[in-house]
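Human: I hope this is not a bother. Would you mind checking the protein record under this note? Thank you for your patience.
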Amino acid sequence: MGMNIVCLDMEGVLVPEIWIAFSEASGIPELRRTTRDEPDYNKLMNWRLGILREHGLGLREIQDTIATIDPLPGAKEFLDELRTMTQVIILSDTFTQFAQPLMKKLDWPTLFCNTLEVAPSGEITGYRMRCENSKLTTVKALQSIGFETIAAGDSHNDLGMIRASKAGFLFRSTEQIKADNPDLPAFEEFDEFLDAIKKAL
């Protein structure tokens, strides 16, 4: 067995989409937009921050919603089992301040993500991306220090790391992304997904 490391997307794969949950809780339908609708992440984030400011909403309100979110059914068991077999890193474009309560519910797996800039008032004033193309850049960096990567995700911004890896999978992706990437094995259930990763290890 080589030196493997599994890289998983977070939202849509292990936990529900945070912005969609907050859109529902706050009653602001525009906040449902994700990278599936707006592939330019910087554009999307600046637009979101504008909407939050307009409505006077800050980090606390979003964290209150996140506190009510649970990981997807079966996600914790899947992750627990996977982590007995190999190293796992969650690569996400979310922010430390959003992810923390969810990481607690998943027993603190390793997470590489971004950081929000927050004023003392709780207003989210900006954000810092860890690096450009964070998922693909991270997978390439891991490969450069001797790891073979296995990657999985559900969205456009996961395709780079999936394609750059020794084995890559789509999990609970959209019909469109599955149709555009017919060569990528796609799974809907955690047990089938776990079996596929086991075989790739």
